[in-house]
Amino acid sequence: MGSSNTLGSLRTVTETRRVGAIAIVALSAPPVNALSEALRLGIRDAVEAAEADPELSAIVLIGAGRMFCGGADITEFGRPWQGIGLGALLDRVEDCAKPVVAAIHGMALGGGLELALACHYRLATPAARLGQPEVKLGLVPGAGGTQRLPRLVGTEKALDMIVSGEPVDGRAALDLGLLDALAAEEGLEAEAVAFAGRLVAEGRGPRRVREDDSRLEHGRIGLFAAAREAAARRYRGFEAPQACIACVEAAGTLPFAEALAFEERTFFALMAGAQSIAQRHAFFAEREAAKVPDLPADARRRPVRRVALAGPDLAGAAFAGAAEGPGRRLAAILSQAAGLTVLCAEGAAPPDLAGCDLVLAGQTRDLASLEADPEAILAVAADAPDPSGLAEGPRLERVLGLHPGAPLPGSPLPGSRLLEILRGPATAPEVLATALGLARGLGRVAVVTRGGFIGPRMLGRLRREAGRLVHEGASPEQVARVLTEFGLAPAPLGLDAALPEGEPAAGHHRRAVSDDEILERCLDTLVDAGARILEAGGALRASDIDVVWLAGYGWPAYRGGPMHGADAQGLPALRDRLRALADRGGPGYAPASLIERLAAEGGRFADLDRRRA
Ligand code: 3H9
Fold first, then answer.
1. How many CB atoms are closer than 10 A to CB 200?
2. Mean pLDDT (10-residue bins), the chain, 613 residues
3. What is the pLDDT of residues 166-189, one digit of tens each?
4. CA distance linking residue 141 with residue 244, whole number of Å
């Protein structure tokens, strides 16, 4: 016998089944069982119904579909709780008079892990991932994670997990004391029911995490000071990591209910702040970027297994780890990817192209005379691929451009998390779909562009402006410092090389240039370059431009990307500054017509994205 709970949007959100005296409550809100209003109410009602039913002795909470739960519903953020708040729901689950067992597969993240922590017992499969990633959205866990997790795994380990946002797998979670038992990958539900049955048979009732302080390590001298110092170094500029530490500290200094209230206040204060708004924008922007509206859903995505590097530029690049130029960086990235065979020229002989799924060249012209398989994709990786090469030729539908962003420091691979995919005028849907699949396989965020790559084009404008500022009187060190303080790393972006030493050209008077002017002009001209790409159809969305800078050029996540930053400041102010620059510095500074139009309408770049969606 089963029952289901349909609420709010009329979707079925929980399904309750019975096995003997055990109620199995399945969370059923695809794709990630996010804890929306409907699901929160559904869980509350299902738990209360099972608690009130004299024939039931214990409850198993389990996720239907791919995972246990991906956390609070981020799309609801910025509005007050409706129905029941997540914290109140978890208190209700923890208060349940019958034992509640969380059975975890896939992901238990954020509010999803907090839900599991409010249950009385926890089982997970070895491959499950359990974590508090709120910090990556500029937040603290806001439904008891900073209070219950240290009580289960100890303060130091909880600090690690909450401040880094990195999940642990099932096995590690068991070792940490986060789980009561591991379950086999297959058969989780049956094992959880058997576990709950044993609890009942042995008369073991609810065991509430909030009631056991024995693992808190708050007496440890220097623990919090060291955590604060490490977080300040590692997450420079980010507010949330320090706020996470303060909440975990409160677990040892305040009574449970007061510490929970402090955590919730901190969560809502951060949620309303500019950093979290920017980081949430970045989260959704990355997921939007993967969507290409005119790509048919059934476009065939061929697996890429064999890659050949063509042309003299890439010869030998694959294993050199060379950071010079996008072609060499991409060649190195492909060579280090699991499951890919990468062939390069040996001596003067070109690589064997037979059976290759992808041929990569550093110049468009290197692709012209190739005898690759007719099915192979011909990709060119250069900052500015020759447009005529992408527009003409015998196998145009197989040609596209690929660009891996800048060589960012701290990245284990040469290059960033980005893969820009440049479609030529005739690139076939199947070729584009295959490139998107390749990006996903490489663990990269793909952004699809037309007419030229977004990153190099905008970077060129930024470099020019930085050079002009030096020309007018700023010192190269000052420009580099201002950009570094903003959060960009000038050297890997080639900005240091764009800063000329020496005297200004005849007719210019050197003057003192303020830090504010440097930052404003660099950012304003960069956004103007982005707006021009957008109005020319070179980017699908403004948020794709943000993704390029966030994933590809080290833009700080807490600033959300250049277009988001301009939206947040207001486009009329941007337009006025660019107009004033044009009055002083010439018509090249005049705002893009898109900026003029949006500023006049009181619109934002984000509104364009919404209209297109
Ligand atoms: C939180 O829990 C706060 C609490 O502590 C306290 C509250 C008081 N909500 O990534 P995918 C959407 S903060 C709403 O492509 P995958 C996503 O936008 C939250 N929507 O799948 C996408 O939509 P679309 C803490 C969400 O399999 C679709 O689901 N949790 C949420 O590659 C598929 O997503 C996190 O930070 C959400 N929570 O990866 C986890 N999550 O199809 C955030 C996803 O329209 N989520 N969506 O583009 C993730 O990291 C990944 O989505 C996950 C699955 C690993 C779960």
1. 17
2. 62 89 97 96 97 98 97 93 95 98 98 98 98 98 98 97 98 98 95 98 97 92 96 95 98 96 97 97 95 94 92 62 76 89 76 88 80 86 79 81 85 73 94 96 96 96 94 93 92 78 64 96 98 97 98 95 98 98 96 98 93 67
3. 999 999 999 999 999 999 999 999
4. 8
For residue 214, is it within any domain? yes
Give the closest residue (by CA) to ligand 1 atom 25. Answer: 110
What whole-number distance in Å separates Cα of residue 285 and Cα of residue 564?
Answer: 10
The span from the CA of 203 to the CA of 206, in Å, is: 10
Q: Which of 15, 37, 114, 420 is catalytic?
A: 114
CA 149 / ligand 1 centre spacing (Å): 21
Residue 4 pairs with which residues in a beta bridge? 15
Burial label, 443 (beta-carbon count in 10 A; 0-12, 13-18, 19+): exposed
Q: Are the CB atoms for 463 and 495 separated by under 8 Å?
A: yes
**Residue 132 Cα, ligand 1 centroid: separation in angstroms?**
12
Please check whether residue 443 lies inside any domain of the structure: no
pLDDT of 1 reads 47
**Before 255, cis peptide (omega within 30)?**
no
* Residue 114 appears among annotated catalytic residues: yes
CA distance 184 to 361: 46
> Is residue 296 included in any domain, yes or no?
no
Pocket around ligand 1: residues whose beta carbon is below 6 Å from it? Answer: 31-32, 34, 70-75, 86, 107, 109-111, 114, 133-134, 137, 141-143, 145, 267, 284, 287
pLDDT tens for residues 465-511?
Answer: 999 999 999 999 999 999 999 999 888 788 877 777 655 558 567 89
The residue contributing the CA closest to ligand 1 atom 39 is 32
- CATH number of 597's domain: 1.10.1040.50
Q: Examine residue 290 and state whether it is found in any structural domain, yes or no.
A: no
Q: Whose CA is nearest to atom 32 of ligand 1?
A: 287
Range of the domain at 353: 306-438
For ligand 1, atom 43, which residue shows the shortest CA distance? Answer: 70
The string of DSSP letters for 297-360 reads: TT-------EEEEESGGGTTTTTTT--SSHHHHHHHHHHHSTT-EEE--BTTBPPP-TT-SEEE
Report how many domains make up the chain: 3
CA 430 remoteness from chain centre: 26
Q: Which of 15, 37, 94, 134 is catalytic?
A: 134
As a whole number of angstroms, the longest Cα–Cα distance in the chain is 92
The number of the ligand 1 atom at minimal distance from the alpha carbon of 132 is 25
Q: Which atom of ligand 1 is nearest to the CA of 85?
A: 8
477 is catalytic: no
* Residues 480, 409 share a domain: no
DSSP, collapsed to helix, strand or coil, labels residue 13 as strand
Q: Which of 206, 215, 300 is closest to 251 using CA atoms?
A: 215
Do 242 and 332 lie in one domain? The reply is: no
Dist CA 597 CA 165 (whole Å): 40
**Residue 111 CB contacts under 8 Å (≥ 6 apart), including other chains:** 35, 69, 71, 72, 86, 141, 142, 143
